[in-house]
């Protein structure tokens, strides 16, 4: 896509020439269209839980909900509200990352300690479905933005639990590799169909929308991981086999 700009050049009120500028705006057009699509998606994703919440609240207000169903209704409102909060949080995170992690300082930190700290709160939801989480780490320093790294590790581990099977397992590994650091999150879950593997890092792309919703997903987790990896010059690799499990590897460069 090209844009043509024409500017007359005048000297002493007399037009002596024409300045023609041909700009290649292909990349800009692509970004503009991605941004429009993202805004439309966000609006749609915000509207769905909000419609449910106001619908449930209205039924309660009108006295249409029998006393014995009140608890369940409150539970549904709570679930939708949590989804909204997660979505708003992820959108804020992505816009920060779009600005290149602006205003956030890189620090030298231990990736293993961070992984242990992030994995800890996930054990409750894992236990409910008899999923075991195993940590295999050694201290390795990386240079990174702590909050972004936390967010990346959390999203990977959270997915490994969410898309796992009853009684499955999750392995979180942090180790030195060459002069850099390697983070691996591996699960024995449902896996990702081959044809979807490239697209799961796109914003709002989900293999099974209703399953993701049910598990409280936003469809933004892996795009945050991808963006975070870019900011840290880290390399991402996904291996997955449907029905068997998924392994995601993030290689951080030497500090
Ligand atoms: P979501 O909030 O839906 O989990 P993500 O961006 O984190 O969004 O992931 C995108 C999609 O990729 C998910 O909806 C799911 O279909 C698939 N996915 C991600 N991680 C895994 C995994 N560990 N096992 C199987 N499928 C996964």
From TrEMBL:
Q: Which GO molecular function terms does the record list?
A: ATP binding; phosphoprotein phosphatase activity; phosphorelay sensor kinase activity
One GO term of the cellular component aspect? plasma membrane
Report the locations given in the UniProt record: Cell membrane
Which keywords does this chain's UniProt record carry? ATP-binding, Cell membrane, Coiled coil, Kinase, Membrane, Nucleotide-binding, Phosphoprotein, Signal, Transferase, Transmembrane, Transmembrane helix, Two-component regulatory system
| The organism's place on the tree of life at top rank | Bacteria
Keyword Phosphoprotein set for record: yes
Q: Where is the Histidine kinase domain?
A: 41-255
- Asked if the keyword Coiled coil belongs to this entry, the reply reads yes
Any one Gene Ontology biological process term? cellular response to phosphate starvation
Q: What is this protein called?
A: histidine kinase
Q: Which organism is it from?
A: Cuneatibacter caecimuris
Its lineage reads: Bacteria, Bacillati, Bacillota, Clostridia, Lachnospirales
Part of the full-length chain shown: 298 to 552 of 552
